[in-house]
Design brief:
This protein has eight helices and eight strands; from the N terminus they run αβαββαββααβαβαβα. With 305 residues, it is of the alpha/beta class. It has two domains: 189 residues, 3-Layer(aba) Sandwich (Rossmann fold); 60 residues, no CATH class. The strands form two sheets. It has a six-stranded mixed beta sheet with strand order 5-4-3-6-7-8, sandwiched between helices. A two-stranded antiparallel sheet has the order 1-2. The protein is extended and about 95 Å long. The mean pLDDT is 81.
């Protein structure tokens, strides 16, 4: 330990380094913390019940096959874990009545090996729906760390809920200022950039990704865009055209979340609401702070599309 040779039995370390207490065994109970592991599926179900979110009805089928085992019949052999108790005792009762061993005054049914019945199963193959979430985030100079943290938290819960409904969920990530680029998950949540804002650059890239990799006939498509609404003013009309002609028709729903910031003008959310006020497949949400993430998720997913 760098303190010399020492003698046999010398304690390592000093009493000053010990924890609280006088070094003797105590007689008071400690604090017991119960650790509980909750699967994401169960967490999503709890969230859905809390937010009163409807079940999502997937549209379209991707060309993949999922195998499921269904219990469809009864057989004479099988593991004890699959024994059908009702059928077993019914068979035992029938045998005892036929053999004359059943006493109605003292009913006692004792199954033997030949009476036992077990569940049998059949493997079925069925198409499985797939979905893709395309996250887009404004990383221009007006989007600060607090705004990005709101996006990160909300994106996690949206991702959790959609994975509850789709076995094969894919996620793609786009960041943009005046230009857009696709990034991985880690970069999406941690990037620090600055510059002006052209939201249309993200929408153009989103259209390109969908047309290249995700046919709307086979995929359930969920684009989510988060920004502070501070877009280059002449770009808004182009964004409306991209949404109207491509993104909304391609998507189950298109969701835009506007995060309140110190510099954002908020004009983009206003233009969206005016241009698409009768469009049910475009949903907008204004998020002032972390406390409003709850309501924002409900606004986005509350229709179960």
């Amino acid at each position: 330990m760098g303190q010399g040779g020492g003698d046999s039995g010398t304690p390592i370390g000093s009493s000053d380094e010990a924890g609280p207490g006088d070094g003797t065994a105590g007689d008071q109970p400690g604090e017991h913390i119960l650790e509980v592991e909750i699967p994401l599926e169960e967490l999503a179900e709890i969230m859905g019940e809390e937010l009163e979110l409807p079940r999502i009805q997937p549209r379209g089928k991707k060309n993949i096959i999922e195998e499921k085992d269904r219990y469809t019949g009864i057989r004479r052999v099988g593991p004890e874990s699959l024994r059908h108790f009702k059928r077993t005792y019914k068979q035992a009762l029938k045998r005892q009545i036929i053999s004359g061993n059943y006493n109605s005054e003292r009913p006692r049914i004792i199954p033997i090996r030949e009476d036992k019945r077990y569940l049998s199963w059949k493997t079925t193959r069925s198409p499985e729906s797939n979905a893709v979430i395309i996250y887009m985030m404004d990383v221009s100079g007006s989007m600060g760390d607090e705004q990005k943290e709101i996006v990160r938290i909300e994106s996690f819960w949206i991702d959790t809920w959609l994975r509850f409904h789709y076995k094969g969920l894919e996620s793609r990530y786009i960041v943009h200022d005046a230009t857009a680029r696709e990034v991985d998950r880690d970069t999406f949540y941690h990037t620090r950039e600055s510059g002006g804002t052209l939201i249309s650059s993200a929408y153009e890239l989103c259209v390109k990704i969908i047309e290249s990799d995700y046919s709307p006939l086979e995929w359930n498509i969920y684009p989510f865009h988060f920004s502070d609404g501070d877009n280059y003013v002449t770009d808004n009309d182009h964004c409306m055209q991209l949404l109207e002609k491509w993104l909304i028709p391609y998507s189950n729903i298109f969701c835009y979340g506007q995060v309140a910031g110190f510099y954002g003008s908020g004009k983009f959310l206003q233009d969206l609401d005016e241009h698409f006020h009768n469009e049910e497949d475009l949903i907008t949400s204004h998020i002032n702070d972390k406390d409003e993430i709850y309501n924002s998720i409900k606004e986005f997913l509350g229709k179960g599309k």
